[in-house]
Amino acid sequence: MPNKITRRTALASYLGTLATAGLPESLLVSREKILPFAPNPAVARSPLCVFTKPFNSISFDALADQIAALGFDGIEAPIRKGGHIAPTEVPEKLPQLVEALAKRNLKITILTSDINDASDPISCNVLKVAASLGIERYRMKYLKYDLNQPIMEQIESWRPQLNELAELNRDLGITAVYQNHAGKNTFGAPLWDLSVALKGISPNDIGVAYDIRHAAVEGGLSWPITFDLIWPHVDSVYVKDFVWEGKKLRNVPLGTGLVPKEFFKKLKTKKFTGPVSLHEEYLDHKNPELVEQHWQAIKTDLETLKSLI
Q1: Which of 20, 60, 217, 249 has a 20 to 30 A CA-CA distance from 241?
Q2: Contact present, 151 and 193 (Cβ < 8 Å)
Q3: Selecting from 3.40.630.30, 1.20.120.1220, 3.20.20.150, 3.90.1150.10, what CATH number does the domain 47-308 have?
């Protein structure tokens, strides 16, 4: 029986021609090479990347030079409104960023996006270009609860949307990751809801970017329970740290707060080899005058991270 032609595959085929038109041949990757993340038993450690949100004010080459000098394997790049590249600029500028990184033997490990709707043409175009450039995964945009409506009904209402996105990802050979993020109305914050919504969806199509900081904030002492619950879906891990000051949270350098070091032991026990993304959130990322301070903070956090993993 021939493969089923769906609206998603037809749209992906059309956007494939549109998205890759004019891209340098050296930056195009065949469909066979664009595979969802699969742990390589020969890899001794997880690839380390850093979320480059504080560095919108510097050039791609300067960014790549600094990332290489620090010793990362790649970056988590914000390719969204207000990020390194706006979604409408992706066909022109994303190949430039990929090329600047490739010159330093680096890559975009995770593309941070505003994408959670498979029917949006701009989102589809971003994914097609990303996949053609060999980018393996992207972080999704968050979904938000209406706290005046039944929670389980909202989770079920999102399942068709997630399944459609999973289908598109499978067609393109790219993996979405959904980050658990603390918040009273954020889908995924308690993690059990994310497990329910992703039931039946392959983690190669939509996985989880497990954020231990947010899991510890929401889970307190019970974070190991939800970690084990969501583990079959985990593709990537996010690390950062925090403390409570009264009723308020404050982000702090890695290793100086309440993120449990036991978590890193669990990763070793489970032989996790997926990407680990370092998030430095305790300095103002919008102030370009703090760029040098961000680099120093990230350098210190990276040293701590290496000692932990």
Answers
A1: 60
A2: yes
A3: 3.20.20.150
